[in-house]
Design a protein that fits this description.
six-stranded mixed beta sheet, NAD(P)-bd_dom_sf, seven-stranded parallel beta sheet, PRISE-like_Rossmann-fold, oxidoreductase activity, acting on the CH-CH group of donors, NAD or NADP as acceptor, 3-oxo-Delta(4,5)-steroid 5-beta-reductase, oxidoreductase
Length: 518
């Protein structure tokens, strides 16, 4: 029974077993191309598709994105292709040679000043991809297109301008709005091009607000809220709610990025889901006033309430905080970023400025998809993922573990990222030194140790820290390439056994004056 029917949705992901890790190489049954692999859902697809028991597999996976491959995406066993699909020549050159593709997962978009420009640019991107693939992929079976709830409420520029609004909950059979919408453009292009190839099928997926992880996404709400809460923590501020009363008290739904990925995989391989459009959400509802308390607890700040009077906005509250963010990056040794890159205030203002929007999942259920998520747990899990964003080139290991390193390997740097304290500790050349990181008067809560080339840390199960999972980051100085490979595999094994999401090392070869990252 497939994992989207069994009630154990996500169980396959928890096992963390990629097809390539098996002792005996397996023949691929399906070959996926993810367009927008560094986006919220693309990142989840890159993690889930290669799992050994993902339906339709074993899967070989290609991933396409405009920018170079980021460190937070490089653990997934996919073939990464840097390509700007807005450029027709670049798309033809890099995608037309992928003749083994069987399934396409299209989830990218670009933003332009007007919806007319959005229709032109986004339509051209999809057309470029289909022009490169459909004539050159003889085994192409299915194309998944991700759009969204704006199918029912219209583009951002038209919010509140329709005389007749569609009534919630939104269902897939509702008529299109009488306004241009690049989602409509994409659907029309898809249906036209799919009709040119016999046996090729399609599906359209319409999530609402997405809870997921991607520092590159233009609609990364969880990451934006984390940046806001971190600044409040740093400055000792109350976590004020910049939103409307309808958002504070009203019912909303959301779409977990992993669930959307599972929904798309289901539609790609299940014969009952072909040539249909589907809503996709977690299957429950929430109020922002409840999740606001969760956000405050996760960052250890005082939770604010809805404030009567003139509405607060994220853009107003955060307009002069760029210098504060730079200070936080320096003090905590974080990867260098700018606040405008991690805090998408305009989008958060849209999300918190809306009235109640709800979709129905009845059509998906009727066609056989029974997956769901607990939205509160989903919110917490993605907050933890954002907090654990690793520094480029370091190794992360879960609590209560350690590794024995050869005597010729030297630990040069160590970082501990603590969820509770939201701090990062740095210690150069720490052989024989123990670092203690705990709450006041509880120095034994977390212990980091590095002595006799044995590195790791312990984690006691008392107090508030018992529900938190810090990460350890190591930088090792190595003597040879082969030694690096041996250490990497040892740490990878330890991490998989304990359920760690990934292993990263930075290697510095003594024989060469360069750093390289795996």
């Amino acid at each position: 029974m497939s994992w989207w029917r069994s009630g154990a949705v996500g169980a396959a992901k928890k096992q963390k077993k990629f097809a390539e890790d098996e002792a005996v190489p397996r023949k691929y049954e399906s070959v996926a191309l993810i367009i927008g692999v560094t986006g919220l859902v693309g990142n989840s697809l890159a993690e889930i598709l290669p799992l050994s028991d993902t339906p339709g597999g074993p899967w070989k996976v290609y991933g396409v994105a405009r920018r170079p491959r980021p460190s937070w995406n490089d653990d997934y066993p996919i073939n990464y292709i840097q390509c700007d699909v807005l450029d027709g020549e670049d798309t033809q050159a890099k995608l037309s040679t992928l003749t083994d593709i069987t399934h396409v997962f299209y989830g990218t978009w670009t933003n332009r000043p007007t919806e007319a420009e959005n229709c032109e640019a986004n339509g051209r991107m999809l057309q470029n991809v289909l022009d490169a693939l459909i004539p050159n992929c003889p085994n192409l079976k299915h194309i998944c297109l991700q759009t969204g709830r704006k199918h029912y409420i219209g583009p951002f520029e038209a919010f509140g301008k329709f005389e007749t609004q569609l009534e919630t909950p939104y269902s897939e059979d509702m008529p299109r709005l009488n306004y241009i919408n690049f989602y409509y453009t994409l659907e029309d292009i898809l249906c036209k091009e799919v009709g040119k190839k016999e046996g090729l099928t399609w599906s359209v997926h319409r999530p609402g607000t997405i809870f997921g992880f991607s520092p590159y996404s233009m609609m990364n709400l969880v990451g934006t809220l984390c940046a806001y809460a971190a600044i409040c923590k740093h400055e000792g501020m109350v976590l004020r709610f910049p939103g409307r009363k309808e958002a504070w008290d009203g019912y909303f739904d959301c779409s977990d990025a992993d669930l959307i990925a599972e929904h798309q995989i289901w539609a790609a391989v299940d014969p009952h889901a072909k040539n249909e459009a589907f809503n996709v959400n977690n299957g429950d509802v929430f109020k922002w006033k409840h999740l606001w308390k969760v956000l405050a607890e996760e960052f250890g700040v005082v939770c604010g309430e809805y404030e009567e009077g003139q509405r607060l906005t994220f853009e107003e509250l955060m307009k002069d905080k760029g210098g504060v963010w730079d200070e936080m990056v320096r003090e905590n040794g974080l990867t260098t970023t700018k606040l405008e890159d991690v805090g998408l205030w305009w989008f958060a203002d849209v999300a918190m400025g809306n009235k109640c929007f709800l979709d129905t999942m009845n059509k998906s259920k009727e066609h056989g998809f029974l997956g769901f998520r607990n939205s509160k747990k989903s919110f917490i899990s993605w907050i933890h993922k954002v907090k654990a964003l690793p520094f480029q080139g370091y190794c992360q290991i879960y609590p209560s573990t350690c590794c024995n390193l050869p005597s010729t390997v030297y630990l040069t740097h160590l970082f501990l990222l603590d969820f509770g304290a939201a701090r990062c500790f740095f210690a150069p050349r720490i052989h024989g030194v123990s670092l203690i990181n705990g709450a006041p008067n509880s120095r034994n809560e977390r212990e980091v140790y590095a002595s006799n080339n044995r590195v790791g840390y312990s984690f006691s199960s008392h107090g508030r820290g018992s529900s938190l999972k810090p990460y350890l980051f190591l930088c090792l100085s190595l003597a040879s390439e082969s030694q690096f490979e041996a250490i990497r595999e040892k740490l990878r094994l330890a991490a998989w056994v304990l359920g760690a999401p990934s292993v990263r090392l930075m290697r510095h070869m003594k024989a060469a004056s360069r750093n390289s990252v795996d």
